[in-house]
Amino acid sequence: MTKMSANFDAPFALARFDNGGRAALGLVAGDRIRELTPAELGAEDLNAFLASPDWDRLEALTQQDGSWHPLDDVTLLAPVEPREVLQAGANYRTHVIQLIMAGLSKGDPSRSADEVRAHAEKVMDARAASGRPFFFIGLPQCVVGANVPLELPSYSETHDWELELAVVIGKRAADVSPEDAMEHVAGYTIVNDITTRDLVFPTDVGDIGADWYRSKNAPGFLPTGPFLVPAQFVDPANLRVVLELNGEAKQDATTAELIFDVPSLVSVASKTAPLNPGDLLLTGSPAGNGQHWKRFLQDGDVMSGSIEGLGTQVVRCVAGSR
């Protein structure tokens, strides 16, 4: 069993935990957790609460007696139950510049590294000024708690990590403006968006396109949590994002590098289809993926992913049989 660290800065957060074999919604304050009843929540379930969250009600409960348990005594599950998962692509400046440089240097080895970088930076500046974010669609069934071992399918040896800040939608968002977008954000959590690199561009389809379905949606490929931290306690514009593999830092950046910020992402996503309470919107992953390090996930690896103010998730990798 993997234990979670309660190192979030907020006075309280939400989590889901295993309570005698059933998933229970819990209120976390410090290093303790207690189950929330529908009456205490003021809603029939988590997503109904997120549609119109009353955080003051929950904060008051942190001061009351109840059946509190030490956080280390419970197994935490994914803190959300999304109906939709959207994943923003190529949204960290340094990460995308690295990808562009790798592609350009292969295509024209006569160009110097400085020339390639200058071109990549120009492309990113233009995209930030007049471009728009794009998204992949993930399967909600891939959302699991970090307590679930990450089974690495045997059909590939290129399973990669992508630690991401994830937006949890509150009030339904349909065709919202960037100025109004944050009214529809209930909170934030951590997601590690696992990707099988050699399946992204299948060799048998030529230039038809990318296979994001198969490369990103194996069982358990979206370890999520441990906590859902209310938006009022989080400034998504400058959070440190760190992923360690077996104790060695591989990703270390801040969300200040986002090409498109949270309001822009929510707004653009909502113009195609409504975002509903509890849905997840992943904001992209910074530089330092396994593809960059030429080192992919292996049996026995341990990933520790932290985002400032949101806690730490620890995911253990095991060899898959399929």
UniProtKB/TrEMBL annotation:
Keywords: Metal-binding. GO terms for biological process: small molecule metabolic process. Pfam families: FAA_hydrolase (PF01557), Rv2993c-like_N (PF10370). One of its GO terms (molecular function) is catalytic activity. The keyword Metal-binding applies. Residues 102-314 form the Fumarylacetoacetase-like C-terminal domain. Residues 14-79 form the Rv2993c-like N-terminal domain. It comes from the Bacteria. InterPro entries: FAH, Fumarylacetoacetase-like_C, Fumarylacetoacetase_C_sf, Rv2993c-like_N. Belongs to the FAH family. This is 2-keto-4-pentenoate hydratase/2-oxohepta-3-ene-1,7-dioic acid hydratase in catechol pathway. It comes from Microbacterium endophyticum.
